[in-house]
Amino acid sequence: MAEIAVALSRVQARIGKAAARSGRPADAVRLVLVTKTVAAERVREAIAAGHVDLGENKVQEGRAKVASLADTSARWSMIGHLQRNKVKDVLRFAHEVQSVDRISLAAALDRRLQSLGRELPILIQVNTSGEASKYGLSPDEVMPFLIELAAFSSLRPNGFMTLATFTPVETEVRRCFRLLRDIRDRALQEAPQGAALQELSMGMSGDYAWAIEEGATIVRVGQAVFGKRPTSDAYYWPGIDGPAR
Ligand SMILES: *Cc1c(COP(=O)(O)O)cnc(C)c1O
Q: 103: number of CA atoms within 13 Å, CB side?
């Protein structure tokens, strides 16, 4: 039983060390524990071990899991590609959406939030790898997007999210993380939201230590805690075919 708790504390220790290498305290990096494909009973073990900050990639799966863990203090983030017709459903369980990547989605979220009288913390997803298969804005689109986003008063943009290139090549993975950091630094100076845009959600099981060294404030980790997923990564990010890290 302690297996998940042990893996979790191992990951947290590694996060702390990487944060220290980047001159920051361990609590400067938030761990979103990614629970996709993980059965609710196993997620419950992580919650029992004290970790309530959870992420799901797909609305359908997320909703069902949230429902079966409704008696816990879990808090859920949406981290996967989101269709406009799922906005209503996602707002039933998510307290944050990390994957906002187009104006039509922002508009749909804002409209629904207005009617609920609610605000939503969001991150803007950027495609730093340049892979056509990845979701997210291209780096050039970010600044105009932020300007348009300012019109949606229910959305609270806190920063940026990315997935690095699927490659074991460290320099390429770090290039993606640095690119997101540069985009963030520029937005802090020039975007209408300015200083609010601090967050950098980058780094997964295979690369979160590198991401933290490059400035990540949020890492999204699943397999390093729950073990290998039965589904291939291509199920979540259509088109990728590189080796998983
Ligand atoms: C699944 C997923 C992760 C975590 O991947 P692991 O390999 O399980 O650490 C991170 N971000 C997103 C968007 C995901 O869908």
A: 11
CA atoms of 134 and 153, how far apart (whole Å): 28
**From ligand 1's centre to the CA of 222, what distance in Å?**
6
Q: In the chain, what are the domains?
A: 2-228 (3.20.20.10)
Q: Is the pLDDT of residue 243 over 50?
A: no
CA Rg value for the chain: 17
Each residue of 19-38: pLDDT tens digit? 999 999 999 999 999 999 99
Using CA atoms, how far residue 208 sits from 82, 113, 182, 230, in Å, is: 23, 32, 18, 21
Task: Work out which ligand 1 atom sits closest to the CA atom of 236.
Answer: 15
Q: Tell which atom from ligand 1 comes closest to the C-alpha of 244.
A: 7
pLDDT in tens, 59-99: 999 999 999 999 999 999 999 999 999 999 999 999 999 99
User: Alpha-carbon distance 225 to 44, whole Å?
Assistant: 13
* Tens-place pLDDT, residues 118-133: 999 999 999 999 987 7
Question: And the tokens for 7?
Answer: 């893996």
Instruction: Identify the residue whose tokens are 């699927």.
Output: 166
Element (H, E) at 21: helix 2-21
